[in-house]
Model the fold of this input.
Amino acid sequence: MKENGIKVVNLLKKFDDLIAVNDLSFEVKSGEIFGLLGPNGAGKSTTINIMTGLLHQTSGTAVIGGYDIKNKAHKVRELIGVCPQEPAFYPYLTGRENVEFFGNLHGMPKKFLKQRTDELLEMVGLVEGATRQAGKYSGGMIRRISLVMALINDPKIAFLDEPTVAMDVQSRRATWDFIKKLKTQGKTVILTTHYIEEAESLCDRVGIIDRGTLLALDTPRALMKEHGAKDLEEVFIKITGRKIRE
Amino acid sequence: MVKKMKIQRINAIVKKEMKKLTRVPATLFMALLFPLVLTGAFGLAFGGGNIAVDTTYTIGIIDLDNSAWSNLFIGNLSASNVISNQFYESNDTAQADLAQGKVDAVIIIPDKFGASIDSYWLNPLNASTWENTTINLYVDLGSLIVSNALPPLIQQILLTTLYGEQALSISQPVTIGNLSGVQASHNTQFDIMAPGMFAFAAIFLVLIVAEGFTEERTTGILRRIQLTPTTPAEVITGSTIAHMITGILQTAIVFFAAGFMGFNIGTDAIRILFAFILVSLLVLCNVGFGLITASLAKSLGSATGISFIFILPQMFFGTFVPITSDITKLVPSYYVTETLTSIFLRDAALTSEVVLYNFVIMIGYCVVVIIGGIVLFAKFGREK
Done:
């Protein structure tokens, strides 16, 4: 595994009798955009939470950027940026202040923090809105500022948990462009989504997950070819007999 | 480098908290305006600001005698400057007004009032010749002050009516000398309450801290911070520093407001500094209580409710509510109020035994509560 890659082996997470993640194993290469595709409750966010150290696995290992998350969570946190599914922010701080607050928590030098904040706000089209208190933002603006907060530290590995949920089409397209730029910068991106077109458009490889189990893993094109499907939705139906958004 | 980064994180958290203080109206009110309003209101209500409290009692009078003596008695009641007379024809009307709180007491002067006094003066040394009679006095039992203060006052006015002014200056073989020892230089009710008010404002920090941490947890921002290299110790330290600043600002507001309302805090800088240090310890204690509350609370609503488990005992046992039971010694605010009372009202030296003893107790209390709060919050407070 390369420095910025991820290796997950036999990952198991139980909540009492409920198995949320069932013997999951996969590898993500450095500089790859890897998608975890599945319906709500499939175990995508739980997997992300284990890989970022928010949850402890019941068994198995997850090595992030060369560090075992179980023993070296603090080292992993220096490498990663996480955009949570629910955008958490301080409503009384401006967009810029929210971003800079997280930059300071990552210990970024002042000059670089300002430069990086300007750059990211420009990229997501929030330069003008950045001086307004975030509590007054629209849903789409909140999603975008949340993404910037996650990536302010210029992380080597980015975990984006359903980053475009509740976004309008225009914001979603802008966010996709932004994620594609991350790849050109050599970042490793783990993306969870239940949007078929998002996975097809962005991901180098996709892991289809349902009820905590990894059902298939390959490039979108290879998966469609293997299952004789016209898109990943059809792939999911052929494997599980259900639609992703039922 | 690592140390510098830690300071950067703590500094960011402190700045964020201070912005919350100034930008969130509810926090601003609870932290800074509440102590100001509280001190001002108590000052006005309890005689602060050298405002003379107009203490007059309205007495309903039914004069069944209507003699020169009864008129003199009524005149003496008015002349006391404490009593305002209101006349009634019937007892029923007077009693109805007493029951409704329109008058503080009712006096029925009997029809033989004047004859009774005349009989006394005809033969003052032979009681068997006196025509005895009784004044009926009904007081508002719903008021502790009225029911305690009025009967002796009216008795005194009755004596003046009977014997004249000399009744109040009878020579006695034993007298009380000038008060000495403890100098009673502060004499309004507000002066006595002021030391408790310094503690009172700090107590409400429990609510601010508990709600702040619980809100950060329930909105997911605390979880998001956990995904950065920031340690729980840095989060708690940053937040504690911010709340210490808030607490010191609160104390300063109460000090200035109390001074404005007439409380003499003196000019001894060392005493004032000591008072600030003491209140800061109470602030730290209440930050600890706030952390404990946030560890127990599952929602913002429950954080508010649990906060009052810490607020109410401190408020009633350790501020300006006069309770003499030893139970008061269980709450930290007691030690602060008691010490501030000693140094500001009793003029006790900072090196006196009681001041040092209370100071040491507060340090111990503070260490135990803040460590308990940090441990509990780090273990149970960040995730629910």
Observations:
- Residues 169-184 of chain A form the longest helix (16 residues).
